[in-house]
Amino acid sequence: MPRPDLLRSVFGRVTLSALLVSLLSTLALFLVVQKIVEDDGRAMLGREVDTDLAGLADIYVSGGDAELKDRIGDRLAVSREDGERSWYMLADANGRRLAGNLEQWPSIAPEVSEARFVDLPDGDRMFGRATQLGPRAKLLVGRSNYRGEALLTRLAVAFSVAGAGIALLSLIAGHLAARRLRARVGVVNATFDAVRAGRIAARAPGAGDSDELAELAANTNAMLNQLERLVEAQRAVSDQTAHEIRTPLMHLDTRILKAMESTTDDALLRTLEQSRGEIRGVVRLLDSLLDIASTQAMRGDPRGLADVNLSDIAESLADLYGASAEELGIGFHARIAPGVHFRADPMQMTRVMSNLLDNAFKYVPSGGSVLLELSPGPRIVVQDDGPGIPCVDRERVFERYVRLDGARGGGHGLGLSLARAIAERHALSLHVDDAAPGARFVIQPEDRDD
C-alpha cells in the first residue's frame, strides 16, 4: 500500500501541528513580553520627562522667560552618558521658537499637557510632553528611547533564536514520535495485507502493551481469530457437504450402471445413460466449485509451491491440443520460450493453461486459429480469432456460471473463474483484451503493467 504524503498522513499532520503550536506559543510569549517592555519603557520615559518639565515650569514661574532660556541652554549643553537625546522647545503663543533645539512645534497639544511619541523631521522618534506656561508661552520636553528600542531588538533576536530552537526540537520530537506511531500502525496494516494476501494466520504484534495502539492490535487479533475460525468452519462445512453429496451421487451412478447391465430395453438404456451423464455433470460442478474455493483460500500460502519449468508444461499441452486442433479443423500455434521457471503448483499451472485453451477452442469456429505463447516473467498468452468478447463482458466472464453465446460443447461457466483464482493464488493477474479479431487472455505478474 503506498504511503500517504506529509499532509495526508495523520502522523505528518500531528508533527506539523506540534510545530505550529510551538511557533504560535513562542510568538504569543514574545508579544506579551514586548508589550510589558514597551509599557515599562513608556512609563519610565514619562516619569523622566514629567520631572524635567515640572522643574522647568517652576523656573519659569520664579525667574521668567530669561531664566528658563538659560536653564534650557544649560541642559542642552550637557552630554548624556547613556547616549540618549533630549529635546526642548520654548515657544510663544503663535508657536515661534524662543529657545530649544527643535525648529518647529510638533503635533502635541500643550493645552491638555499631552504626552505621546512623535516622529521628528530628521527621522528620530521622540517621547514628549507639552504644557502651557501662560497665555504667551508654551514648553515642550522630549526624550529619545534608544535603550528601549535596542532592548526590543535584542528581545526579538533572542525570541527568534529561541523560537527556531524550540521549533526544531518540536519537529524532531514530533517526527520521532510520529515515526514510532507509524511503525506500530504499520505492523497492523502489514498484518491486514498479509491476511488479504491469503496468510490468514498472520497476527499483529504489540497486543500486550497498555496503550490505545495495543488495544487496536488486540482487537485486530481477536477479529482475525474469529475470521480464521469462520473460514475453517466454512471450509469444513464445504468439504463435508461435498463429500456427503458426492458419495450418494456415486452410489446412484453405480446402481444405474447395474440397472443398465440388467436390461435390454433401448429406451431405458438411453434414459439411464442420460441420467449418468447428468450425475457426472453435477459431480464435476461440485469439484470445480471446491477447486475454486480451495484455491482462493490458499491465496498467498506458499505451501505446495515449488520451482516449476513452465516451458515443459506448455510444450506438453501444445502437443495435446495440437492433435485436438487437427480433428476440429482449427489451426494451433505455440510460441514457447525455453527454460521459463516459476515457483508454483505444477498441477494448478497445468490447469490454468488448459482451462484457457479449452475456452479458446469452445469459441473458435472451424477454420479459425488458437495461439499459446509463453515468455519470461512469466507471461502466458492464449489468443484466438473467434468472435471475441464485448468490452462490457470482459470482467463478467470471470464470474461463476457466466457463459457467453456461441460456445462449443457444454460447461458450467466455471473454467475462467478457476483460472483467475489460480492466477491470484500465484500473485499473477489474468485479464482479457481485444485481439481484433478474437480474444486475448493474458497472465502476468500483478505488479507489471500491460
From TrEMBL:
Record has rRNA-binding as a keyword: no
Signal peptide span: none
Domain called HAMP: residue spans: 179-232
Gene Ontology molecular-function annotations: kinase activity
Domain of life assignment: Bacteria
Catalytic reaction equation(s): ATP + protein L-histidine = ADP + protein N-phospho-L-histidine
Protein's cellular compartments: Membrane
EC number: 2.7.13.3
Entry coiled-coil feature ranges: none
InterPro entries: HAMP_dom, HATPase_C_sf, HATPase_dom, His_kinase_dom, HisK_dim/P_sf, Sig_transdc_His_kin-like_C, TCS_sensor_his_kinase
PROSITE patterns listed in its UniProt record: HAMP, HIS_KIN
Stored SMART domains: HAMP (SM00304), HATPase_c (SM00387)
Keywords for this protein: Kinase, Membrane, Phosphoprotein, Transferase, Transmembrane, Transmembrane helix, Two-component regulatory system
Residues annotated as transmembrane: 12-33, 155-178
Occurrences of domain Histidine kinase (ranges): 240-449
Class of the enzyme per the UniProt entry, highest EC level: transferase
SUPFAM superfamilies assigned: ATPase domain of HSP90 chaperone/DNA topoisomerase II/histidine kinase (SSF55874), Homodimeric domain of signal transducing histidine kinase (SSF47384)
Protein name as annotated: histidine kinase
